[in-house]
Amino acid sequence: MTQTGGKQDKKAQQYGVTPQSVDFNDWYNEVVKKADLADNSPVAGAMVMKPYGSALWENIQRWLDDRFKATGHESLVFPTLIPMGFIMKEADHVEGFAPELFTVNKIGTEELAEPYVMRPTSETIIGHMWSGWLNSYRDLPFLHYQWGSVFRAELRTKAFLRTSEFYWHEGHTAHADEPEARAEVRQMLDIYHEFCRDVLALPVVRGEKTASERFAGAVSTFSIEGMMRDGKALQSGTSHYLGQNFSRAFDVKFQTREQKEEFAHTTSWAISSRIIGAIIMTHGDDFGLIMPPRIAPVQVVVIPVGRKDNFDEMVQEGEKLAAELRAQGVRVKVDKRDGVTNGFKYNDWELKGVPVRIELGPRDLEQGVVVVKNRNSTEKETLPRAEAVGGMTARLDGIHDWLLSRATEFMREHTVPVDDYATFQAKIEEGNWVLAHHCADAACEKAIKDDTKATTRNVPLDDAEFFSEASQGACVRCGKPSAYGKRVIFGRQY
Amino acid sequence: MTQTGGKQDKKAQQYGVTPQSVDFNDWYNEVVKKADLADNSPVAGAMVMKPYGSALWENIQRWLDDRFKATGHESLVFPTLIPMGFIMKEADHVEGFAPELFTVNKIGTEELAEPYVMRPTSETIIGHMWSGWLNSYRDLPFLHYQWGSVFRAELRTKAFLRTSEFYWHEGHTAHADEPEARAEVRQMLDIYHEFCRDVLALPVVRGEKTASERFAGAVSTFSIEGMMRDGKALQSGTSHYLGQNFSRAFDVKFQTREQKEEFAHTTSWAISSRIIGAIIMTHGDDFGLIMPPRIAPVQVVVIPVGRKDNFDEMVQEGEKLAAELRAQGVRVKVDKRDGVTNGFKYNDWELKGVPVRIELGPRDLEQGVVVVKNRNSTEKETLPRAEAVGGMTARLDGIHDWLLSRATEFMREHTVPVDDYATFQAKIEEGNWVLAHHCADAACEKAIKDDTKATTRNVPLDDAEFFSEASQGACVRCGKPSAYGKRVIFGRQY
């Protein structure tokens, strides 16, 4: 998508990363490995999160966890295994997940009469537990979530995006009535949206999934969708209204205020380690990652620039500068590596996407200045040390804003309203999202997918921030009347 | 162990908890359930951690995680599954773990030619990954850890103590030589000891395990051992020097400074969710739990004591008081439940072991006082509000100290040096630890276990804080010379 000149290509070769513009897929895989985010594992479909990736995931967890607690949710820990019979109880659920299940049929030397599955998601076992905990309307709502991993077979592995074991939180709540449950579904979708926009600098579209893209067992599924720099969509979070489907299957009922028996209305919602894929593919460039500053494991890297005879002294000075930045609440690392060139260090931290680099040499020290370079700029600035330190939070916020507006602009530029099928196919092929009217017929959606590999991403909500205008029209493929009263987003997806 | 009069028995019956002194096992199971720490699950051997238990585990994780990072360790995330063949590579390891393994032999509809096991511990897969990451001595040390759960078949489940799936961190480090690796093993043992003593108020004995109690594949295993209020031991953390056993099995080698090829020296260490069992069984009493204040999810509970017409007002006043306490860094909860009696609330929070209760009634409010009760006392104090708030941190520290000295005294009282086998058997039967000389012969240890159900807990280190005096003597059972130059701790264990 991006245009790169000969100079950038050379630089990219120097790092050993294929430029984005040459092969987006190779760029992604190389960046993930070389930035120390993740590695392949000897387990089919599973990855290893390395220190830099794990630190990023921890920051993501910390922010979301604080928010869940602040909105009254409680964490619990449910088993990794689920009795096979549980998965069978909700008809749509079993149809959706059966082909992907990991089956445990032996413990020690004992063959199991009824096997267990490794959880693909936990609605079933949580429903079972709830039925034992719930008696009266006074017990509700249950506002629960857990952090952990889940297991769904994947043939073609891609770190963070498609792994057989992936990492997430899953929220599960139970309510006395539908309006309260639906308000929860919306609340969590909005928290996800806020997190993406204000912390990760990711513009995402809030909307409802069409019937064929719903979670297996849900009444309504809502998602946030982001656009990657190759024009593909990445579903970055989901929030489901499950109605009484799971509560009926697992007998989650309670006595109402009016002394009647009623099944609970339940919800579930999740953001997974896929979101790291979204960060990489929304913000990265030919030089590697660009970490959104508010979630970056390292916000500022200090490079002591010394010769052999004064390197240790410059490292010490670097530590002093780092301490001043830490006192401002900034996450800083001093690169103390000896035996590698400054150029190597610069490239390494650019690849890792650290938002700000500070170079500190003996002459800078004498003059009371430092050299500052933002990851999203090619300019170096020489600034009085106090100004660099005091202005760091504002500088990081500036990089956040820059990333968010670049990504927003990109998404807007690559999203086009289309009313005829030939143009639809061409625009999808060029790597855009298409805003089109649709009849809501599943067979028609399927035909579009077969023709173009594009699926419905979502139907933007009225206050979705993007692409939410009401309009009428005819289905872009079959010509039947539009079913949604607005255009639907179609796109290829990860 | 504890003496309880008729009045306490009655009170305990009122809560519906069997007194400790009547049946320690029933007491434990009932407290775990009624305090909302955990529940049984439909998965054989697995538990569900409920909100109060999960909040406690989160606090434990937070403290340890900060400490690991402060000592230079990095978190990573490895897969839950391990190829069966990996477990087979280290001879002692496979012998130790084979009977407990969960086997996955089917993914989707595909039967696997080589099955996976759900990790019982991760030395093998981490060794495999390290062999790909390690080249030169410059890459070392690897200071890694991960949080997660592991799977070992358990027939007789008991929440936190024996569950097929349990929760832990596992530290894994690789070093260029043995002294550095052994220093790491000791550092982590000391961090565990500090955590138990200074945060959980648990006195624990640091020592080395005898050969027959070593981790499967270790050269040396060190443990911290605590004493429960029924006199049994609970191994509360372990730190292993693995020598080159796993690095040879997984080809974890590097080029030394002198350009030679060498296998790394590795370590592993862990504290698991069993530690919650130790907290319960060391500090609890007939009334329920007593939470050590520094880790307690709720340190202070405020009970607004109002009548129907002023209950809402008292809840508001309770919130004001809670805000003042939070400003002191105290974790507070206001019990706003309507429709239950104050007595019910008092009992409920005593059962949950909240260290301090504050009652706030309309008359107290007028007079500018509050009623304060420590969980470890039967006295209520009426204090000026400002004094109660300002003194809360010191009060919590006082409860910590009280718990630690009570547990230390109990451990000292119930640990006896013994030199003849008849007394050994009697003292074990009475619920003590015995300090005895031993010949170090595995068959002799086994005979003692068969006779008494007691095993060696550990051989206290020279600076173990407890029971570390050097001495010579004859094996308490067979009369051969002592092998350790000091007495070994024997005890029944969880």
Description:
- The structure is a homodimer of 494-residue chains.
- With 494 residues, the first copy, chain A, is an alpha+beta fold.
- Chain A contains 16 helices and 24 strands.
- The longest helix of chain A has 22 residues, at 392-413.
- The two termini of chain A are 17 Å apart.
- The interface between A and B is large, with 56 and 56 residues.
- Strand 5 of chain A pairs antiparallel with strand 5 of chain B.
- Chains A, B: It is found in: Cytoplasm.
What integer is the average pLDDT of chain A?
Answer: 94
CATH top level label of the largest domain in chain A:
Alpha Beta
Q: If helices are DSSP runs of H or I spanning 4 or more residues, what is the number of helices of chain A? A: 16
The CATH fourth-level homologous superfamily of the largest domain in chain A: Bira Bifunctional Protein, Domain 2
* Multimeric status of the protein: homodimer
Radius of gyration based on Cα positions of chain A: 25 Å
Number of beta strands of chain A: 24
Q: Give the CATH topology of the largest domain in chain A.
A: BirA Bifunctional Protein, domain 2
